[in-house]
Amino acid sequence: MSSMPLSDDAERIDYRSMARVHLRAAREILDSREPFASEYACLHARYALEALAYDRLQEYLQEVSASAMNNWTPKTVLQELLYTDPEACSPVNITTGWKPDPDSPTREINLGESYQFSAAWANKMHNTLSNFLHAATIKQAKTYEAEADRQTRSREKVAEALLELERVLASPVSSF
Question: Are 55 and 117 in contact (CB under 8 A)?
């Protein structure tokens, strides 16, 4: 695998739109109350989380290796980001200023905040959602009172993930 950075002319993939599609699907499925709805919603929430991690990684095309783009878990992607820029997952408030003329005071305009989820949250949530996409282990099966308890827990966790993902996608500034 190449470790050369991707070029400036590499086309940016619209991962935020993909994340929105998966988020909407997860919300609709979760609201449907169909059998296994929470598991399907977990899958779509994971896709949205992964898409947002890739979206963030694209901001660093010149600083990360091409092989980093081939990783598919948020943990690996976000670790690469944090290695490159320890502040990569921090919210950023964007303001701009100008002087109408040299003697006037600077006027500032707040363009908004770019909200990012934390790498720790993304990794933990990705793993949590993944747990509901597999059959319960023997230990888990013995701990759950019934399959309904597992459904309730998965529904709660995916709802929690969707709230955070919606918050990230609602940021007025997403890349700069």
Answer: no
Length of the chain: 176
**What's CA 124's distance to the chain center, in Å?**
12
Cα–Cα nearest to 159, from 40, 21, 27: 27
Give which of 135, 122, 102 is closest to 168, Cα–Cα.
122
- Rounded Cα–Cα distance for residues 51 and 15 (Å): 5
Radius of gyration of the chain (CA): 20
> Rounded distance, CA 43 to CA 25, Å?
10
Tokens of 45: 């929430």
| Helix%, strand%, coil% for the chain, nearest 5 | 55, 10, 35
Q: What is the DSSP letter of 92?
A: E
Whether 5 is covered by a domain: the verdict is no
Q: Which residue range is the domain that position 48 belongs to?
A: 15-169
- Count up the domains in the chain and report the number: 1
What are 37-96's pLDDT values in tens digits? 999 999 999 999 989 988 888 887 777 776 766 766 777 777 777 777 777 667 777 778
Mean pLDDT value across the chain: 81
Count of CB atoms situated within 10 Å of the CB of 124 = 13
